[in-house]
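The record is passed on directly below:
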Amino acid sequence: MAIFEMIIGILGAVVLSSFLSRLMPRISMPLVQIALGLALALLPVFPTVKLDPELFMVLFIAPLLYLEAHEIDKRALYSTLRYSLPMAIGLVLGSMVLVGVVMHAAWPALPLAAACALGAALGPTDAVAVSSMGQSTAFTKEQKGILEGESLFNDASGVVSFQFAILAATTGTFSIADASREFLISFIGGVGVGVLAGIPTNWIFRFARRMGWETMTTRILVELFLPFLVFLGADDIAHVSGILAVVAFGLTVHFDHTGLSPNTARTNIVSSSVWSVLSFALNGTVFILLGMQLPGAMLTSWDNREVSRGMLAGTILLVSAATIAIRFLWIWLITAPSGKRAKGGEAGRRRPRSLRDTAIMTFGGAKGTISLALMFTIPYAVSSGAAFPKRNDLIFIAAGVIVVTLLLANFLLPWLAPKNDREESSQFEKVNVEVLGRTVAELSEDMNDENRAVLLPIIDSYNMRISRIKQRQGTFDAETFEALQIEALNWEKRYVRDTLAAVRADPNMDEHIRNLNIEACERMLDQIMNIVRHTANAKNRLDVISQIRGRYHAMHRQVSAIARKTLHRVRRSTPILSENEIYEYLRSVQIGAIDHVIEQLYRAMRSDEYPTEYCTMLLRDYQRSRARLSSRSDIVNRVKMAPQIDEAKQESYSIELGVIQDMLGNGEITRSQAKHLRRNVYVMQVDAESGM
């Protein structure tokens, strides 16, 4: 029961951290989670449970490393291997030796092997921790590729080095020849197991998809299960590195990139969402545990007369300085040849990388999840049965170094590499126009006399999206225009609410007509609120209460509509509303709302609240929508063709997702851009499936 209470408390703290990080955007989420873990540990009612180190390794490290390897931009990874591999292996070994020697010299009571284990654990960097604070930091493509590649491979090298250091600390013996031989066997064997597991996995999934056997449930469950199976198979059966096996497996499998059918797209959407939630929960849990570990380690050291508080604090600062210094020097030596060419263009002569670039790469390698997870796996006793020397002190020092590196990254990276939102937005808009243009080209190729009337409205909507994006380029202020769009949606919302109130207050209206108007208004309100939630920018996300209230009202309206229909069926008092009738009344409400917004836009143009050109741009969009809806024949035809248009719209989203995947595979867009583009499609896809 204590374990269950601890799990519930930790998960609750992880959920709370997601809300608090929005209220404190300048503080990285790992720091917020560490503070919450510290608060949990100080609660007298919260249980204290010891974790099994081996279980911790399997439960946390295996899925996190698999996801990191699977999601990494492989093209960028391969292009930066000449830098990331020396950093991932050489820098980890250098950190292990330097930290071990410095710690042992400063604290002779600590065995050298145990000090080296601390250095090995602090070798791996945490790309997840840095990416969480990357909202205000602009890494170059090369810097990002090096950091991601280093983070992926140094996890494996750090774990293997840590395990050998712990073996030497527990047994008291160490042989360089034996360690080198076992290292090579473990390294090559782990990679081999991962590749051998990944190749048949790809074949099996392709075959199952071709035969129609794959379902969303089986695909996601198997995908969640495989990293644990690969880790345990390599570690317990083959007796090689389970970490390297999981990394190699994640780099090899690509079963989610095959197939462009709507079912496959939906499965990929759900799989991505599941892994996103799992990754956030696992990373958050590790940082919560870090915060929970601090009081215990601190109290143990506090009661120990041999270790003073000043010595602990000084050791944390000393180890942090040593870790940062060797990282800075190593990056300067390894990546200096990759600087810009010197003037004159002589081959082989390049300017050394600037101190600023080196500092960005240095502080971009903050410690985090893997380092702490490794420290938790330190055994409680050595082979003789005695307690492992200074176990709690080592964990406390590692936690302190992690906090120091996170704080430095949190406050120095935005200053060293400030993010240029306008430049990034402009680049993304160019990519978005290219994706939309290719989607229109594919839709046009599929158009014939039979489906022309169905595809033309969809192609027109894509062309309008392209036109709006092109209008925004240049000196366009996206935040101001987005604020005007949200204000226009609020005008629509107020108009529909007033209309709904008038319908409900009219005692002379026919009951059937009243129900049609109410249903149309409520659907319109749901549509507006859904768009508002998805178009809100980062500042609007702070209004969490408004978003919760909006979702509550939408759910309340849907439940009321279902209850009303059920009541009508039971009483048989009125006929069930037909979708064709609702569609016509919905269009009538939309026309009225558009007229109201157009009137408000004309008023806004006469004031100085919004720039005139932005009002004109949005006004043209509403006028085009008004012209389409005001045509009676257009309404009738669209009612008849609504099912075909909805089906074609879903197919267009699948085509757009396929274009994004092809551009990502060809290296035309980055993985981050592809993720953002897919998210936009998913939002529209969900809206279409819900009948919005």
User: Anything to note?
Assistant: The chain has three domains: 2-338+351-419, 420-475+645-692, 478-610.
